[in-house]
Amino acid sequence: MLETLGVTDMEERVYRALLRDPTAAPCDLALAAGVDRTELRRLLALLEMKGLISRSAGRSPGYVSVAPDVAVEGLIQRRQEELELIRDYLPQLRKEYRHPTDKWNPMEFVEVVSGREAVASRFEQLQQSATESILIFDKPPYALPDDADTHPVNRLEFQRLEEGVRYRTIYAGETLAIPGRSDVIHAYLRAGEAARVSPELPMKLAIADRRLAIMPLNVNASTQHAPSQMESAVVVHQSSLLDALATLFEAFWDRALPLSFSAEAGKDLGTEGDDEEMEVVLALLTAGLTDEAIAHQLGISIRTVRRRIRRLMDHLGVASRFQAGLQAAKRGWI
Fold first, then answer.
1. Which CATH superfamily is domain 106-258 in?
2. CA 94 – CA 107 distance, rounded (Å)
């Protein structure tokens, strides 16, 4: 357990043996730790140097262990200071990594990542690197680890939102059609994500601080026995290509409908207790989903969906779904 702090397994065994028996003779200590006397002397000297033990003040020479909460905490503090020194060294490494060359090489700005696990790992790295914002086009398939393809949860997003990183996500209509997906999306919204919905998206995409992006290169088509999966992805560094991707995101963001249902809408419709479900119905409706798809998403009957849509349209005084979306936007409901 202490290897991360620079204490070897053998050193830790000697230290723990001394913790258990502070008065142990050298021969007993060597036996308990499973080392010979010569090796024990070397290990004791190293433990003393690392502050885990100290020499006893009695008549006979020996060692006593330093209390773990003092000794180990000291090692942790020392390691944190070392890591901060490495953090201070990062600007120099970044400067060398981005150092201009006499001949422009496009391979410096684009890299290919192969394999689902590798793609998922790079997506997590992208999120960890962000200090301000992350922009996302969300549509199937997904490459997050340890989750079914139909219910992926980006758990790192909750942590980064809490740390102050802003997430803006545009969900494709097909994403909202996945059964149970709305529960995951609402968890993101409650955590602080700003979200909108678009009937279609051209690709999957994630951009961190407008300086790094990742997008799929190709996708395995789904079959009867296996869902579609990402085989590879392209990581794009700062370049005109990245600027174009950021501009594309903003264009879709401006045209997409907000995934939020205002309190005023709930008051107008008299559905304050069902705001969240009405929000989803309206979002799915404006995203162009069929009644069957909306019912499948919410786990309710088609008749119930049609009744709620009819109620919404009657209240708005419109005759079509498209008009309902326009009127809802005009009233500030979405």
1. Endonuclease Chain A (3.30.870.10)
2. 17
